[in-house]
Fold this protein.
Amino acid sequence: MPIQPDRTVGVACTGRGRERVGSGESDAVTKTATKTSPQLKSLSEYIQERFDEFSRSQKDVARYIVDHLDEAAFLTAEELARRASTSSSTVVRFSQALGFEGYPELQQAAIEEYRTAGQAVSGGSSAGSLFSFDHSELEGSLGADYSNLEETARNLTREQVDGAVAALAEAQRVVIVGVDQMAFFASYLRHLLSLLDIRAEIVASTGGESLQRLGRIDDETLVIVLSSGRAHPLLLRAMKLAVHRNARTLAVSDASMSEVGEHAELTLYFSSNSPSFARSNTALMALVQALAHGLYARDEDTHKDRIRAYKLK
């Protein structure tokens, strides 16, 4: 939904248009409408334009709305707060910081942008839907994963993927950083790389051995950081250390405005929308396998023999 500028004293910028605030002899200047948005800006564009002004918790909300608009448009403030790992009061304050009276007005703007984007993609038709509107929980989950793969493929460029594959192929040493559920994908990526004769180390905790691996980062190292949701302090620490030591860096994240991505030389985005209590990692798994396949394709004959020998062991 386009957000109109507000230059009038006593007028709040809301998702439904201008509304006069206050009555009597004078009008109060709303505390939240301190900034003006350009005409015909979508909610996502306006959020990205104002992103640096938000607090850390508000940035978590901003990232989730921009990257998961189809979910955020239909979530309550409490549900959105839970998905963004923050509080419902932060969601309300974020709405007000954008110039809305409250969360319902922001949500309406999100719904309008979602509808507009859907019409642009499908020409106003729902023929491209994987399942009917009246779907089961299983179908809803599978449908979300299907959409995540499509969105990830649309947002990645060939240059981004080729750059990541080349960095992996040229690196003398690879360090993969991933904590919590991302540790599994770090381990899986290391396994795929080992089949291609690329040795990688994993940093998955703040334990002594992991910190020693970080301590060995140098300018011949490629540091890969896997991130989902708010970036763990260890991920930011690893990325900043890598930059300080002139190492090459690759951030793989489900946030287009990722904290780790701000410091990375190379970035890859994956979509993680999910109707469930946990984010979807289907697109991340596909992306990890695509990177490995890209490496394999660079010297298929050599790798084919090596993998055949590995399977015979």
The chain has two domains: 11-122, 153-312. The beta strands are 11-14, 17-20, 173-177, 200-203, 221-227, 248-253, 266-269. The first strand starts at residue 11 and ends at 14.
